[in-house]
Automatic annotation (TrEMBL):
Protein source organism: Octopus sinensis (East Asian common octopus)
PANTHER family, sorted: ALDEHYDE DEHYDROGENASE-RELATED
Gene name of this polypeptide: LOC115217972
Ranges of residues in domain Aldehyde dehydrogenase: 24-486
Family under the similarity heading: Belongs to the aldehyde dehydrogenase family.
Domain of life of the organism encoding this protein: Eukaryota
A family per Pfam: Aldedh
Keywords (A to Z) from UniProt: Eye lens protein
Molecular functions per Gene Ontology: oxidoreductase activity, acting on the aldehyde or oxo group of donors, NAD or NADP as acceptor; structural constituent of eye lens
Listed name of the protein: Omega-crystallin
Coiled coil: none
General function of this protein: Omega-crystallins are structural components of squids and octopi eye lens. Contains relatively little if any DHAL activity.
Amino acid sequence: MAGIPPPNKNPEIKFTKIFINNQFVDSANGKTYPVINPYTTKKICDVQEGSKADIDKAVQACKLAFKRGTPWRRMDASRRGHLLYRLADLFERDIAHLSSLETLNTGKPYKNSYQDMVHSIQILRYFAGWADKNMGQNIPVDGDFFSVTKHEPVGICGLIIPWNYPMVMMTCKMAPALSCGNCVVIKPAEQTPLTALHCASLVKEAGFPPGVVNVVPGYGTTCGQSISSHQDINKVSFTGSTEVGKLVMQAAGSSNLKRCSLELSGKCPLVVFPDTDLDFAVQQAHEAAFENMGQCRWSGARTYVHESIYEEFIKRSVELATRRKIGDPYELETEHGPQIDEEQYNKVIDYIKSAQEQGAKLKYGGNKHGDKGYYIEPTVFSEVSDNMKIVKEEIFGPVQLLMKFRDLDEVIDRCNQSDYGMAAAIFTNDVNRIMTFTNSVNTGTVWVNTYHYWFPQAPFGGYKTSGISREMGKYALREYTEVKSIIYRIPQKNS
Ligand code: NAD
């Protein structure tokens, strides 16, 4: 990647405390927990462990910041935008440090961490621009009345973040929430709090008033659950597994019926017809399966290849998997790092075993790589069938499943034969096939002759059990907005 600053393999850990009211503070119960480097499997540092009492404190800070008449409520919308632009500038200033920290904490290759920071900056700038443009309407009602809608912030938003893209996932929730004028309590994944805490320091430096942004690291069943069941949090935005997403929605419903955005698991189909550039399609399918060590909800986790090119596709896919550079995440040529933690490592290894037991053919990989870190080789299976566990469930690991299909109708049915509906892709040059496919698959995104591209301007989110909301784009604003209808009686209508 051109122009990428060199990593710092030993980034200083400046922030390990809970961030409330623009101050770094100890946890209410004095507990800390260890944060682990997935590359060395050694402890990086101890971080203050938030619990319900800390979430309560953060919510109290939000409440004060969100009161009528406070600097945040009185602030011009354009000024909120300026603060977000400034935060983006600070991300840019600290990009090498943030990328180095992200790699230390997640094990993802440094150049990918750097790309994540670039995306985060783009997201901040995109939503900064919306701050003074999220407006209501003037509605022509019957009679002598004047009717308008006003877009208001929902209030206090709890943002629960996963570990696979810590900064990007945090930014794509925080940026629209702040752009719309909300206050936020952010709970990073317990595994990956370090960049979120550095970002908290930048929030203060950018000039956000105290209490507007709070960051409380901690575990899901304590800290996360306190957010989803909190009586004074008005909205929860969650990214993670479908299993936990259901718990979050139940807690939101049984507490105060808080608004809920859910970005959940996926099992995305990628379909390759013979009338395409085969090398390009093989390379895209490879990236789709192995990006971020397969730890993406939009991974190309089910690759359907037309029977006429199936054997050749397997051969070329194995060649690419063989060449994928596994190694020290800080080395610029590294493409493949460790899985996030031991639990995920074991889970993926179990899926690989189950695939073999159920008769799939292991074409490459399938083992631990090296003797240090939670590394799993890029793994390629052929002769995979739809009823296997590895096809039905989200593996969240570097496992490519190659399946054979015969015609368009059949493959559309098989694509839709999933509880998930995150994204799908098709590689073909036939425009009618493309139109039928894009209009028939039940997914929130369809990629045509490409994969993985997403933009701050375009919405992203799932159908079915992959979620119930949209992030990015103008659509994200409505997730953080209440619509107020105001009706004035007037002396006389004048059209
Ligand atoms: P998870 O869903 O358990 O965790 C995601 C976030 O939710 C974390 O911040 C976690 O602390 C929090 N959380 C956990 N339990 C909670 C609860 N009861 N209430 C509120 N918040 C809670 O994901 P995980 O344990 O990190 O990974 C498990 C599986 O989830 C993975 O194997 C993968 O399949 C999936 N996953 C999906 C995504 C995604 O983006 N779709 C991201 C991470 C993990």
